[in-house]
Amino acid sequence: MPKVPILMPQLGESIAEATIVRLNIAMGEYVIPDQEVIEVETNKATMGVTALCAGQVVQIVAEEGVSYAVGSVLGMLEVTQEELDRTGETSMDEHAMEATGSPQASGDDGDRESNLHFKTEDEGYHEPVLVEPNIKGLPVPAGKGGAHYISPRMRARMTELGLRAADISAISGSGAGGRVTVEDLESFLEYISTWPHTKASPMRLAVADAMRRSWTRPLATVARPLVMDKILDHRHSQNPKPGPALYILRALALALAENPTTAGYLIGESVVHPRAFDIGVAVQVDDGVLVPIIRNADTKTLSELVEDYNRLVDLARSRKLPGDATQHGIATVTNFGTFGLTWGTPIPLPNETLILGLSAGVKRPVWSEQTGTFIPVTEAEIDLTFDHRVVDGGGAGMLLNRISELLQKPEYL
Question: Which pTM does this prediction carry?
């Protein structure tokens, strides 16, 4: 009876290989057309290899955890001539003819390697070309790197336990290529079962979810020093006194109003520009952070914003913010300097492209061209984390420089 090979298909334009995840067939099993017989993984997705015609499995060459080139023979089906004629598929003998350009002669082409990536031999057995896993083709790390690939069985168990991929990142996998198996997960859960633990609050879970979604983007951070003396002098002359974060927020709003694309969203092939410059301010609360939004921060002066700012910060600290007070901001300002931190890499919210951080002020000597001496100044660092799909390092640097320029004239904010 004719034999039809199960070949590694071309799974994508740029994909040259795939890794066997699971064999869904056994020797002697009868399969039907379009039945998924093998599950494979590329560097893009998990896919299924299907049977092109009905037949009996008479050979399985593929091994789980091994990568094979496109066109490699993964197994063999024995089919009837009627099925071959009905489907129009090519038998193994016809494959060999296409590969060598001539009919297969017994023993003549035993050492010839075809463009289908298998060797023809007398008995019809075809040795697949194994692909040494590489960084482009392999969906999991070469070493025991952890949970880069999650099998369907593993996903089902994680769903039962309410776990996400990030929750198992600490587990060292024992599976092929370092992938984490269900057994690894169960062993890890048993290992930590006696450790002290507390239930995460809804606030903590909300922050965790937001940060997971934020980190699906390519984020980068740039920073520069900021001399704070003029800001501090101006602040002491005001009543009520604006917080340092409000100065930063106002300068950011003005700078973005001058160049709105910096805070745009990349949606498909379009950059959507903000229609209002509503800037959030991060407020530390018990077990989390709330971000009330200052509306139209570019159209109101610093003195006009103080009352709104103080009111919203107080409401956030008492956990009494109205629902709409935290929605639809385009960027956030965070003053992590209140904790004595001198630098940081803040992460923007998932719906925002930018977050601007202010560090603690530190007295430093700075050279003065006017006096020809070093003079003490209070210097802080401003850190801008941004979505690198929308903003490049040069654009982020120019935005920071413009913010610094505006802050050197606080009386005009």
Answer: 0.61
